[in-house]
Design goal:
10 helices, globular
Length: 337
Amino acid sequence: MQMKKLQICVIGGGNHANRFIYPALANIEEAGLAAVCTSRPETAAAAAKRHGAPRAYHDFREMLQKESPDAAVIVGPPALHREAGLCCIAAKIPFFCEKPSGNNAAEAGELAEKAAAAGTFGQVGFMMRHAALTRELEKIRDSAGGLVYGSLDYLTSGPYRSDEIYGLPGTGDASFLRRYLMVQAVHPVNYATSFLGEITSVESHVQFSGPEDLTVEIHLGDADGRRFRVMLHTLVAPGYGNLRFQGEFFFADRTMAFSDGFDRLEWNLPAPSGDAALRAWRFAPFGSSSMKMGYEAELRYFFDCVREGSQPEKITTLADSAATMRILETVLKENNQ
């Protein structure tokens, strides 16, 4: 018997939605695109035609009321994530929103608290947590006694200083840093926290080395003494996107793992076995890029939660997003921004 499709409404029709979210949705057979919404009638009609939605709206409240979908997907600036998220919560519609889930930690926390009080839930788009490589790394972690120390280098290309992007105003150093933390640093910081327990220490250093050059180093620690270092740099190389994402992970039984982007993972066992100590995993070259980077996997996970009526695992929840935002605000305060 064929499973009935979930009826999904999508709010957003910008670059990220068109490049990653809509294509991922198209690959998920159990999800039916019921309607789309953008801020203007003409862009809404264009998005509906492009992605095969039968109806288009330019007011997400009207769309949610008329369509009464099984779930909503929200892709836009942080203010939209919060505003549309609150509307979904009021209607008890589970929703997926891109990161970050609010303009600041208070807004992200409000969203998490109101969803819990209403008995519904939301998931936030930290796609790195759902990448194929991450799932392999989690298997190693679980068999190696947990993380002791981790390090992540995350380099991206600019510019991020312009207040015309991401709906976050201001061009000064404080605005530049906040924008970079919320739009880019939020990913590796959230990723790092997934290997730690309750965060008890945050230490950071920020350096501005040019109009668009920014280096941020963040050290996180938890109550059990585990540590994670996140090193970030934005390079003046517009158009290149994410340039480097490499990790080192050291576990309790002395297993060591090294990741290269979303493609490759190598790990050394604590002692050589009959067939040597080195292990390796590589994403299939003919595999889906959307699955490799986690975009399709995160939506599949979300839709599974919608069918179950709850989030069985605490992965990329609204509360998880709020906790990450609190870390980023600590970095801002530590650096007087």
